[in-house]
Design a protein that fits this description.
alpha/beta; Rossmann fold; seven-stranded parallel sheet
Amino acid sequence: MSLLFITGTSTDVGKTIVTAALAATAAAAGARVAVVKPAQTGIAPGEPGDLAEITRLSGITRTVELARYPEPLAPDTAARRCGQPLLTLAETVAGIESCADADLTLVEGAGGLLVRMGEFTLLDLAQKLDAPVLVVAAAGLGTLNHTELTTRTLHSAGVHCAGLVIGSWPETPDLAADCNRTDLPAVTGIDIIGTLPAGAGSWSTGRFTTTAPTWFDPAWTARHLHPAN
């Protein structure tokens, strides 16, 4: 089983749609794909969450959610407020390893890299499993600082950054977005390996799955998403 973790430079940068696009791209190459969302917040029991959206867009049905909390807060805070025990690193590792028969397991974090999903962060989990982390970044102002902070933290922790993805590229980019597309690799030393168009999360399954593979660098997808790898 290959692992790829997906984090963001902050909340609402497009992690879930990027995860769906990665799942669709890997499945199109013939990979058996599983998606794990350790902790989901802001969703009541029985309501569709991020994994349901990933399934709707990508067609992938092998999904694992370990904990959900009703308030839209960091998972550890949300767990304490509703009286649930904090998710542990050990049970999260076990949940991911339950997908060992998949060719590729995508693990989507909550918020940014250091948001506590329970008794641990996504960084702790990546270190534990020696997994690469893909960073989803915004296009506009503020993204250079947020992205460099995230990639520096990964480097300092000895965790491989698998690349940068711009989670939502505007139809009419402003000057900041155009400059950031050049500057992000320059300040982080990490390549942008994918760019998703704004609004892709509202697309139909057919349109999304057909188009998603075109959003990523083909050489990168061959290394990271194809079943032989």
